[in-house]
Amino acid sequence: MTIDQFAYKLKQHCGPLFKVAEVICGYGVAFLHGKRIREALDQAEQSGTIRGNAARIRALVPGDIYALLAFYETLPEGHFKYFRPHGFARRDVEKVLARPYYLAYGLFLEGELVGYSLFKLYPGKKAFFGRMLSTKLTGCGLGKYLSLYLQWQSRIMGFKMRGTINLQNSPSVASHQAVGGFEILGDLPNGYTLIEFPADLMPTEPPVLDVRLE
Ligand SMILES: CC(C)(COP(=O)(O)OP(=O)(O)OC[C@H]1O[C@@H](n2cnc3c(N)ncnc32)[C@H](O)[C@@H]1OP(=O)(O)O)[C@@H](O)C(=O)NCCC(=O)NCCS
């Protein structure tokens, strides 16, 4: 069993212990790699278009809490079938936006938050990612864009990009496979799989935010 598989099991069976370890390790990682993390965040803001309308992606800050809470409110329960990044109570979201080992990114369309991505940073220079799009914008290529965008940010930080994915989640799997794909590292409980993105395929330049499909 790898350390990640052990950690996942610990999270499932000893949630409070995992959370304490996560906080301690998280602050340590943020301290040790702060310079590279800041380097990535300094370049995080990118502009472009979605269906001809102005779009922007940038790192989220504590002041974005209301936009993020409002975004979650728009999502139907079914959208969380395979992925629930963290609790959605105000205090949970405040922690995500304030703690240095969470990197949260918002995708804005005409000023409205329509997509959310995050990294949780762990020891061993591992960045575990997640993506969540508004239901009105799925299926038009933004999942692929976010996959590349996160790989690019991860490359700047010098972190391995890993994820826990359910292979039944077809849009998630297909959107990664369309832009280079991932390696399977092992099985996790509850039908999940541990994956990693090959470092040599990670983009060196930010992907272009230009989505035209209806
Ligand atoms: C996962 C998610 C971010 C993907 O975003 P998206 O915008 O739908 O992705 P894209 O449009 O870039 O790509 C979707 C791909 O899946 C394919 N696809 C969509 N629905 C599918 C289905 N039911 N079966 C098979 N393939 C499917 C599309 O054809 C496309 O592949 P292609 O370009 O090779 O044709 C989005 O669906 C989402 O927010 N889901 C809910 C949250 C979630 O599960 N997140 C994943 C955890 S990391």
Structure keywords:
alpha+beta; Aminopeptidase
Protein described:
This protein has 214 residues and is of the alpha+beta class. The chain has a single domain, classed as Gcn5-related N-acetyltransferase (GNAT) (Aminopeptidase, 3-Layer(aba) Sandwich), CATH 3.40.630.30. It contains 7 helices and 9 strands; from the N terminus they run αααββααβββαβαβββ. It has helices at residues 3-13, 15-32, 34-42, 65-74, 90-98, 142-157, 170-177, and strands spanning 46-50, 53-59, 102-109, 112-122, 126-133, 160-166, 183-187, 192-196, 210-211. It is globular. The termini are far apart. The structure holds coenzyme A. The site of coenzyme A (COA) has 22 residues, from strand 5, helix 6 and helix 7.
Catalogue the ligands.
coenzyme A
| Spatial sequence of strands, sheet with the most strands | 7-8-6-5-4-3-2-1-9
Helix content: 25-40%
Low-confidence stretches: none
Average pLDDT figure:
94
Number of helices: 7
Radius of gyration: 16 Å
Report the sheet-strand fraction. Answer: 25-35%
The top level CATH class name? Alpha Beta
Q: What's the short story on this structure?
A:
The chain is of the alpha+beta class and 214 residues long.
Q: In terms of topology, how is this protein built?
A:
Blueprint: H1 3-13, H2 15-32, H3 34-42, E1 46-50, E2 53-59, H4 65-74, H5 90-98, E3 102-109, E4 112-122, E5 126-133, H6 142-157, E6 160-166, H7 170-177, E7 183-187, E8 192-196, E9 210-211
Parallel strand pairs: 1-9, 5-6
Antiparallel strand pairs: 1-2, 2-3, 3-4, 4-5, 6-8, 7-8
Helix pairs in contact: 1-2, 3-6, 6-7
Coenzyme A (COA) binds at residues 79, 82-83, 130-133, 138-144, 163, 169-172, 174-175, 178.
